[in-house]
Design brief:
Radius of gyration: 23 Å
Pathway: Cofactor biosynthesis; adenosylcobalamin biosynthesis; cob(II)yrinate a,c-diamide from sirohydrochlorin (anaerobic route): step 6/10
Number of domains: 2
Strand content: 15-25%
Number of strands: 14
Structural class: alpha/beta
Enzyme class: transferase
Organism: Myxacorys almedinensis A
Shape: globular
Helix content: 25-40%
Catalytic activity: Co-precorrin-5B + S-adenosyl-L-methionine = Co-precorrin-6A + S-adenosyl-L-homocysteine
Pfam families: CbiD
Distance between the termini: 36 Å
Largest sheet: 5 strands, mixed
Amino acid sequence: MEVRAGYTLPVFACASAIAALNHLRSARSIRSVEVDLIAPAKTVTIAIEQVANLQPGVALAITRSDPGDNLDLTRDTPVWAMVRLGTGAISGKTRLAIAGGEGIGHMEGDAPAIYAYAKQLLSENLERLLKADETLHVTLLLPEGRSLAKRTSNEAFGVVEGLSLLGTSGIAQPLSAPGQLELFRQELQQKAQRFDCLVFCVGENGLDLATKMGIEPERLVKTANWLGSLLVEAGMQQVKSILLFGYHGKLIKLAGGIFHTHHHVADARLEILTAHCANAGLPTADLRAIFECATTEEGLKYLKTLEGDWVTQVYGAIAATIDRRCRDYIYTHSGSSSEASVVVGSVLFDRSRQILIQSQIATTLLKQVC
């Protein structure tokens, strides 16, 4: 089954800004614009939904996000760009100023969550359209961003009150589309022929941390949310050991027997965390406080405020449970001849990409792969 890739949010933000600037130039209706993706090096056509002048020298344009064949909550969300054309340098030699408006999250220090690729994309596409004496102020808006952000783990990584313009490429790979699973399986099969121990990374944060720790990149397998299917595939390929790398708010689902980790499928993170806290002997009042937290990150912060090393006790048990449930899942679904045929160890990190806990098995496996 062929899967259709779409584009990341920065591409639609850039397209809206280009359309608004072009409308200021010509005052004509604009149905589409060309965007140079930079990464990869290709130019694509993006549909424009609406464009209008707001006042002299100011225009607004709207696109709608299309992430391709992906379970992405930003699908069809409107992406606005308001541009104001002027003359003279904005500051020093800068000709382009980029700001985040409603729905664009912000990070510590109140900086808008507009990352390097988005800035590069806007800069290279817009500055080539400016005349020598012109400057441009661009304000990006995601009217639905604040409400959509409540359904993401943005806050866990320090982005609040909106979505981020994240990514290192203009292409949105359909990691959650069923067809993508087959591609992941093929990659795993190839790597299983070379390595007895593979490192499963849930998302870009896990890949980044694993690489910085010195793990051979060739061992890394990006799983997206297909953890259960790929664990079984590893068992069928007779991989001897698997090291799981992931954000604690994602991997904790495995401790509850949830092996497809997309939030559209299932979510019991706080219930799992509370259950492990109860099993560790945490008082009832503290259990209630953790259960009422909005996120597992808040639950972790609460544990850190308590006397005693509850974090190590609770998350150590969670990591051990993840190891055991993954091993059992492989045994049950892959037809392995021995329950101990695949060894699984887990490494959980926090919002700062710092290791929160690693299971005893993970400690042993890390020595093999680093």
